[in-house]
Amino acid sequence: MGLKTYKPTTPSMRFTVVPSFEELTRKRPERSLIVPKKSTAGRNVAGRITVRHRGGGHKRFIRIIDFKRDKRDIPARVAAIEYDPNRSARIALLHYADGEKRYILAPLNLRVGSTVMAGPKAEPVDGNALPLSEIPLSVPIHNIELYPGRGAQLVRGAGMSAQILAREGEYVQVRLPSGEIRIINVRCYATVGQVGNLDHENVSIGKAGRKRWMGIRPTVRGVVMNPIDHPMGGGEGKTSGGGHPVSPWGKLAKGKKTRGRRKPSDRFIVQRRK
Predict the structure, then answer these.
(1) Per-residue pLDDT averaged across 251-272, rounded?
(2) How far is CA 27 from the centre of its chain?
(3) Is the pLDDT of residue 208 over 80?
(4) Per-residue confidence at 1, pLDDT binned at 50, 70, 90?
């Protein structure tokens, strides 16, 4: 993947860095694998705003991604690499030998015309999905299940990869991109390789308007509000009142750990993220 910059004809263009999309081989999605995405604008079923600063933005379709990879031992040809507006990674359209079509996350080295397969007998090469018991140690993996058969929940963002550190009995130790080492059942499936679109981290939005296209509305800082509107509001001149940064409802906004102290899944975490 490449990046595209612009001549600084305007202040925003000076800092804009966007993907070149040169790796994409198809513009329109497969019609049988998309459903409309309804814009909620951050509101719940009662119509109340539960996530602030959402609304507007371009219309989107949800691409139905195969996170379970449950079509086992049937080879599939990579027909296209496509854009997905709902995630940072690119997606690959697979044509299976029996005629079915599915989307998967596109690994780094996957090319149109390549053949991929899912199952315990598959080779540990990029794009193939295998149970953790069959994947060699230290091989980059992504799209990892937490519970057998539930579908992949871990390591799905652009450029992400994890590693199997050790295997013992029914469990393996996996180092996640955050640095956390976690124990996962060997029957869980994972896809071999690193998620593609590595340059996503180098993209620079460049201007406020592009955020509006994404459906993200402006954020007003609490320190510029009045005391009635925010705990950090008020004061003469630029001041936050000398207190710690908090949310509009008084909850600590920086540094406070939010994970529950006695979660059942704590026993699966060998080492916390750094």
Answers:
(1) 90
(2) 21
(3) yes
(4) low
Beta bridge partners of 271: 181
CATH 3.30.365.10 assigned to domain 3-201? The reply is no
DSSP 8-state assignment for residue 245:
P
User: Tens digits of per-residue pLDDT, 182-192?
Assistant: 999 999 999 99
Mean pLDDT, residues 77-90: 96
Distance CA 66, CA 160 (A): 18
Q: Is the dihedral of CA 99, 101, 102, 108 positive or negative?
A: positive
The answer to whether 164 touches 137, Cβ cutoff 8 Å, is: yes
CA distances in angstroms from 208 to 55, 60, 71, 152, 215, listed in the order given = 14, 20, 43, 33, 11
The span from the CA of 271 to the CA of 274, in Å, is: 9
For residue 13, give both structure tokens: 């263009």
**Annotated domain spans of the chain:** 3-201
Quick one: pLDDT band at residue 257, thresholds 50, 70, 90? confident
Number of residues in the chain: 274
CA-nearest of 69, 258, 272, 67 to 176 is: 272
Strands in 171-225 per DSSP E: 171-175, 181-185, 189-192
86 vs 158: CA distance, rounded Å: 12
How far, in Å, CA of 40 to CA of 48, rounded? 10
Apex 42 CA angle, 40 and 45, nearest 5: 60
What is the distance, to the nearest Å, from the Cα of residue 90 to the centroid of all Cα atoms in its chain? 11
pTM of the full predicted structure?
0.89
